[in-house]
């Protein structure tokens, strides 16, 4: 087969000439017979240092970025607590969905994250005002919800200890949510920190990497027993013992947990009556709700089914 045109030779020649020019100008060692053996010294460009005013501006802007995360979450909590949504929406959940595009569950996570941030700043810097916080040394603080979600259920002092350990494992930088979660798990396994779930709490089942939970992914259940590293969760078709890594709390309010407990009992009674398969599928769909209430139509259908089993 004929060789391709000589463009490749020209390109090689150009590279060789460039190497010669560079080596010559830099007074480096260069062997024309073997360009690959060339030793080229590259002088780094000098970076202009920050002035005192620029350094102050940098620190001030960093503090604003750090505080933005916290201020947004505190504002959300105040909107909820003062019911400032009442003129346009009946519930906080509807308001959050329409105004910010997220569910009440996410809102609860955000508000819980604000409490964690406040706990960390209080314990870490009791003698410093919030505006003096900087991301250096022991004053590294969270910048996103995912970083503090694993510790929202811990006591304030435990939150601080976990956060400090996570910062160390992250090399003195802001740790990821995964690092924080791993630290929590290690501490629980090593020191047997009490299970933070409570009886009556509503949790979602995370079936990933657990074949025993196949078919239960995204289902919700009520915690009926709290063990060292697991919870017994009551669902519409029975009770299951599930490891903490496969549970996620919905962070419902106490009244909402009671309502979900009542709903679980209602679904269980109808489900155990062995009605048609289509009915069972409907009940199973209710078992995957990510909200603490039924719609008007869902409530009507469930009422009809309850009347059916009574008759």
Overview features:
five-stranded antiparallel sheet, alpha+beta, 311 residues, 2 domains, elongated
Short description:
The protein is of the alpha+beta class.
Question: If you had to describe this structure to a student in words, what would you say it looks like?
Answer:
This is Site-specific DNA-cytosine methylase. The protein is an alpha+beta fold and about 300 residues long. It folds into two domains: about 60-190, no CATH class; about 200-310, no CATH class. The chain is built from ten helices and five strands. It has a five-stranded antiparallel sheet. A hairpin with a 3-residue loop joins strand 2 and strand 3 (about 230-235). Helix 2 crosses helix 4 (about 105-125) and helix 8 (about 255-270) crosses helix 10 (about 295-310). The longest helix is centred in the N-terminal third of the chain and has 30 residues, at about 50-80. The radius of gyration is 30 Å and the shape is elongated. The termini are far apart. Mean pLDDT is about 80; it is low at about 5-25 and about 125-140.
Describe the secondary-structure layout:
Elements: H1 7-26, H2 52-81, H3 92-100, H4 104-124, H5 145-148, H6 156-169, H7 177-191, E1 202-205, E2 220-226, E3 230-235, E4 238-243, E5 247-249, H8 254-271, H9 277-286, H10 296-310
Antiparallel strand pairs: 1-2, 1-5, 2-3, 3-4
Helix pairs in contact: 2-4, 4-6, 6-7, 8-10
Protein name: Site-specific DNA-cytosine methylase
Organism: Nostoc favosum CHAB5714
């Amino acid at each position: 087969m004929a060789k391709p045109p000589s463009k490749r030779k020209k390109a090689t020649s150009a590279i060789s000439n460039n190497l010669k020019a560079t080596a010559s100008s830099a007074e480096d060692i260069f062997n024309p017979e073997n360009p690959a053996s060339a030793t080229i010294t590259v002088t780094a460009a000098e970076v202009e240092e920050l002035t005192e005013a620029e350094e102050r501006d940098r620190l001030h802007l960093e503090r604003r970025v750090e505080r933005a995360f916290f201020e947004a979450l505190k504002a959300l909590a105040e909107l909820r607590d003062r019911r400032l949504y009442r003129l346009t929406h009946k519930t906080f959940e509807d308001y959050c969905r329409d105004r910010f595009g997220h569910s009440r569950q996410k809102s609860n996570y955000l508000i819980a994250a604000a409490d964690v941030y406040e706990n960390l700043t209080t314990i870490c810097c009791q003698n410093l005002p919030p505006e003096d916080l900087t991301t250096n040394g022991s004053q590294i603080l969270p910048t996103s919800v995912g970083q503090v979600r694993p510790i929202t259920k811990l006591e304030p002092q435990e939150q601080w200890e976990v956060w400090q350990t996570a910062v160390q494992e992250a090399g003195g930088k802001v740790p990821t949510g995964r690092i924080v979660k791993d630290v929590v798990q290690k501490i629980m396994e090593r020191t047997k920190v009490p299970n933070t779930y409570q009886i009556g709490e509503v949790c979602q089942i995370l079936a990933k990497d657990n074949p025993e939970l196949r078919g239960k992914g995204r289902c919700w259940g009520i915690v009926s027993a709290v063990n060292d590293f697991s919870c017994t969760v009551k669902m519409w078709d029975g009770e299951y013992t599930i490891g903490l890594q496969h549970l996620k709390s919905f962070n419902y309010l106490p009244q909402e947990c009671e309502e979900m407990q009542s709903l679980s009992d209602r679904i269980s009674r109808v489900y155990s009556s062995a009605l048609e398969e289509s009915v069972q599928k409907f009940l199973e769909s209710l078992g995957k709700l990510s909200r603490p209430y039924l719609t008007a139509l869902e409530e009507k259908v469930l009422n009809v089914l309850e009347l059916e089993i009574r008759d």
